[in-house]
Amino acid sequence: MAIAWGWGRAVRSMARGISAGLTLGALLLPALTAQVAQAAGGNQIVVISNDRGGLIGQRSKEVRALRDGGQVVELRGKCISACTMYLALPNACVSRSAVFGFHGPSWYGRPLSEAEFEHWSQLMANHYREPLRSWYLKTARYRINGYYTLSGAELVRMGYAPC
Q1: What CATH number has the domain bearing residue 76?
Q2: Does 162 map to a domain?
């Protein structure tokens, strides 16, 4: 079974999400493709690939739902911006060839107040384990245009499970 989120979902997320959270960078309609398969033992596997991010509040809800459902999540391809929040999942693994993009919070590319910047940066950092968390807080969060990239292989070396 394949689930593809496209224009309709993005428009609904945009309408609901303006008050639910900020974007990490410019809001691009998600190019997220999630495929759901059954693993041995009946657990679902969700494959996330080519996700350009989106609203932090909405993504936080998706991460919670996946955690509550106990799904195994495979991160493959490009995972940019708010997509990186999936790294918080206990059952997540990363493809060594995946590319992850990190940057700081903004309001559609515009700087936030100091208090808002700190709040949303900490929320993002809470989705990462060490040493990624420290690197994000010291380096990546200060870039709001473009992003820093890390490969899945680099994340595996930091302790994330390989797929």
Answers
A1: 3.90.226
A2: no
Task: Report in angstroms the alpha-carbon separations of 21 from 15, 87, 106.
Answer: 11, 19, 11
Domain membership flag for residue 163: no
User: Prior bond to 111 cis, omega within 30?
Assistant: no
34-83 tens-digit pLDDT: 444 444 445 679 999 999 998 888 999 999 999 999 989 999 999 999 99
Q: Is position 130 within any domain?
A: yes
Residue bearing tokens 């224009």: 7
- How many CB atoms are closer than 10 A to CB 17? 20
Question: What total of structural domains would you count in the chain?
Answer: 1
For residues 52 and 81, the answer to whether their CB atoms sit within 8 Å is yes
Asked whether the beta carbons of 155 and 132 are under 8 A apart, the reply is yes
* Strand pairing category for 99-102 and 2-4: unpaired
127-142: average pLDDT: 97
